[in-house]
Specification:
With 346 residues, the chain is an alpha+beta fold. Helix content is 25%, strand content 20%. It has a single domain, classed as B-lactam Antibiotic, Isopenicillin N Synthase, Chain (Jelly Rolls), CATH 2.60.120.330. Residues 197-297 form the Fe2OG dioxygenase domain.
Length: 346
């Protein structure tokens, strides 16, 4: 999609927020029932899973069946390192706009998912999210586009490389524990990812907004990934999950990572684990940042419910699907605020 420089510049939410602008009509929700105006009910913190604990698999199973997500504190990353990751994220978004635009998602007038900007504008009636982001593929190595990796702050690349390595180790450990929790071979899920699974990083900036009751930081959705790792803002809440039919705030410990189920794992688990619908809301006086890592199978690999989870008591609930084909369904529907998982049900 070709977009003029004037339109592209208008789309940077951080600039509008710094000027104190009222949200333009393209960001305003059309239906009153979609508004995040009403404070969600208080809920207990997201369950904590202790990785390496003798009962970790049962802790994971319980958390995923009740929340679709859990938090990890003993993740192999120190509190100081996670704070450093937050610091380089904030430092990048605090750079002058001209510096950030060096990494723009728009090259030669065309939109690309990797880079700095926000989500693609695909239709005239699309409601836009009140957020800017930096999206980078971090694995496999040959899929990195280092031209889009910020050189300022100077430690950004080293911190991201370290976070990538440690996140991947944690993801493999979690996938093994999830399999064991269902009495499966520990490599049952990992084997469906292929030789070249993909890990993408998304650095999110949610500027404050004059009318947070009229916009979404990120629209309600489930993730297209298999698993998502989230480092939330330590001081500002904003992530909400649909639980038992109502929105609740996701409350976590200050130095915890959130592990969130994605659509691909719902398929692999034959629906035993559900990919939760979640959203991000904004507020009037505080910016919010977060970092998300999306772990997905190799694009050409066909995934499906694990054979051992299909039986007379629980028949097959999902078709086999290649990730690249699922994404062709997912992204246009995500931009319109629609879910996709039901389209691959048997």
């Amino acid at each position: 999609m070709v977009m003029s420089e004037q339109v592209r510049k208008m789309m940077m939410v951080q600039e509008m927020a710094e000027r104190g602008e009222y949200p333009p009509s393209r960001y305003i929700l059309k239906d009153a029932h979609q508004s995040p105006a009403d404070a969600p009910p208080q809920a207990p913190p997201v369950p904590i899973v202790h990785l390496g604990h003798p009962d970790e698999d049962q802790q994971i199973k319980s958390a995923l069946q009740s929340w679709g997500m859990f938090q990890v504190i003993d993740c192999g990353m120190t509190a100081s390192f996670l704070d450093e990751l937050r610091d380089v994220t904030k430092a990048f978004f605090d750079l002058p706009m001209e510096e950030k635009q060096k990494y723009s998602t728009f090259k030669s007038g065309k939109f690309h998912y990797q880079g700095y900007g926000n989500d693609e504008v695909a239709t005239d009636d699309q409601i836009l999210d009140w957020t800017d982001r930096l999206y980078l593929t971090v694995q496999p190595e040959d899929m990195k586009n280092l031209e889009l990796w910020p050189e300022n702050p100077s430690s950004f690349r080293d911190v991201l490389n370290e976070f990538t390595t440690k996140t991947r180790e944690m993801l493999d450990s979690v996938l093994k524990a999830m399999a064991k929790s269902l009495q499966l071979n520990e490599d049952c899920f990992i084997s469906q990812f292929g030789d070249r699974p993909v890990l993408d990083a998304r650095f999110n900036n949610y500027p404050c907004c004059q009318r947070p009751d009229l916009v979404n930081g990120v629209k309600p959705h489930s993730d297209s990934s298999a698993l998502t790792i989230i480092l939330p803002d330590k001081d500002v809440e904003g992530l909400q999950v649909m639980k038992d039919g109502v929105w609740v705030n996701v409350t976590t410990s200050p130095h915890a990572l959130i592990v969130n189920m994605g659509d691909q794992m719902e398929i692999m688990s034959n629906g035993i684990f559900k990919s939760p619908v979640h959203r991000v809301v904004t507020n009037t006086d505080k910016d919010r940042i977060s970092v998300a890592m999306f772990y997905t199978p190799e694009g050409e690999v066909e995934i499906g419910p694990a054979d051992a989870l299909v039986n007379d008591m629980r028949p097959r609930m999902y078709k086999n699907v290649k990730l690249k084909d699922y994404l062709e369904i997912f992204w246009p529907r995500f931009l319109q605020g629609k879910m996709s998982i039901d389209l691959v049900k048997v």
